[in-house]
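Supplementary Methods. Inverse-folding protocol.

Structures were first reduced to a discrete structure-token string of length 426. This string, shown here, constituted the complete conditioning input.
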């Protein structure tokens, strides 16, 4: 897939890029925003779908699960795909895939059709974020890599927040297909801009990686090279734990809040509080990354999550204060969910960045599957909300230990893997 190229002259290496490339940053961010929107679109539509099709909401579990499976497969495959075709082409095709998948979902007529479409759509959704992060970091100054990774990844949270705020209104006014049509239309509108202004990073940086070398750098085995093996394991463990706990609350917080006296109409405000805290957490990461190592920033935000979790366990029925506290929980946990991509970007060579981001995110996606199951089991056992919150502190504390350990191992590395030279073609 060839197309127009950015007018910027080629540079001899990524390190020669000295000014921010705003078109690439904005396009990568918007692509990830639409990714975040479509990722939760089905969850928003399930009540209306169940009513329209006359089936219990639980019957949509396969479609929801296959969406997550498709996303995980996209995360895992993206490293190989970017090595062979380049980040530009992967982003373009992935956006096209989830555009078509989202549009066809609006006309699905059975759970089988819906599930198949969501698996395909999920693959496109999973491939977009790591490729967009790798593209944006490759074509911007190396000193901003972590902040850029945070900025682009934050699009997932913003897209989910937009869907959460406006999705219910769209469904209530126009029916459940409308939420998918809106997402598909927005993605289709983005595609021409990606075609014209998203460059091939290999041409801009004059990359001379031979195909065999590119496949080698994109292999998951590179994440377990002796120099980075321990840090990979620590980062994967951190991502899994933080995602697990966040998704316990994103899935069950409205239910948990009813024990604090929230009505069923007010309980969803807890999810909104988590979302607002998540956006603030992303802002904290972007600012913090300019002055501190990302692992240090994440250690601080993870500690913040523990503090707010403990506070929430002992608060009374003050609704406003509870929402504020759970906003703090969202800040701390979402910062970890976004920051893991920034750590992966700085941990591995640029040629391995998409693989590193993709596999770390897939570990987080595994946590997002396990978390709601654990939360549902704890609720099913009849545990109080305070007990569940305190139990959730344990994996968050373990995540804090892992990120601190990762920061300490990173200070001992020499040279930095991120600065490792890329082999030239022989």
């Amino acid at each position: 897939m060839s197309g127009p190229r950015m007018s910027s002259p080629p540079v001899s290496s990524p390190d020669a890029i000295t000014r921010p490339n705003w078109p690439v940053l904005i396009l990568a961010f918007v692509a990830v925003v639409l990714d975040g929107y479509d990722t939760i679109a089905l969850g928003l539509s399930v009540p209306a779908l169940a009513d329209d099709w006359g089936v219990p909401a639980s019957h949509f579990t396969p479609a929801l699960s296959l969406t997550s499976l498709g996303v995980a497969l996209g995360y895992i495959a993206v490293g190989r795909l970017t090595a062979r075709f380049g980040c530009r082409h992967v982003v373009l095709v992935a956006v096209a895939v989830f555009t078509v998948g989202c549009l066809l979902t609006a006309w699905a007529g059975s759970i089988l059709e819906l599930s198949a479409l969501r698996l395909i759509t999920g693959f496109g959704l999973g491939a977009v974020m790591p490729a967009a992060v790798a593209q944006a970091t490759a074509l911007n100054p190396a000193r901003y890599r972590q902040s850029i990774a945070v900025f682009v990844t934050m699009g997932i949270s913003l897209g989910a927040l937009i869907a959460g705020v406006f999705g219910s209104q769209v469904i209530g006014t126009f029916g459940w297909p409308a939420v998918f049509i809106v997402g598909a239309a927005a993605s289709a509108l983005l595609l021409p801009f990606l075609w014209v202004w998203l460059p091939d990073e290999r041409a801009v940086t004059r990359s001379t990686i031979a195909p065999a070398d590119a496949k080698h750098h994109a292999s998951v085995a590179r994440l377990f090279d002796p120099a980075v093996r321990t840090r990979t394991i620590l980062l994967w463990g951190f991502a899994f734990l933080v995602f697990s706990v966040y998704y316990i609350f994103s899935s069950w917080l409205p239910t948990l809040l009813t024990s604090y006296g929230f009505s069923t109409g007010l309980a969803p405000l807890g999810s909104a509080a988590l979302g607002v805290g998540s956006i603030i957490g992303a802002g904290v990461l972007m600012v913090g990354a300019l002055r501190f190592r990302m692992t240090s920033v994440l250690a601080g935000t993870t500690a913040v999550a523990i503090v707010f979790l403990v506070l929430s366990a002992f608060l009374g029925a003050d609704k406003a204060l509870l929402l504020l506290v759970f906003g703090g929980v969202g800040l701390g946990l979402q910062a970890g969910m976004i920051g893991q991509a920034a750590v992966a970007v700085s941990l591995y060579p640029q040629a391995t960045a998409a693989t590193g981001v993709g596999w770390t995110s897939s570990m987080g996606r595994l946590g997002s599957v396990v978390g709601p199951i654990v939360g549902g089991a704890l609720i099913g056992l009849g545990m109080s909300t305070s007990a569940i919150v305190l139990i959730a502190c344990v994996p968050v504390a373990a995540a804090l230990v892992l990120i601190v350990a990762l920061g300490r191992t990173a200070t001992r590395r020499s040279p930095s893997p991120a600065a490792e030279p890329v082999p030239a073609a022989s």
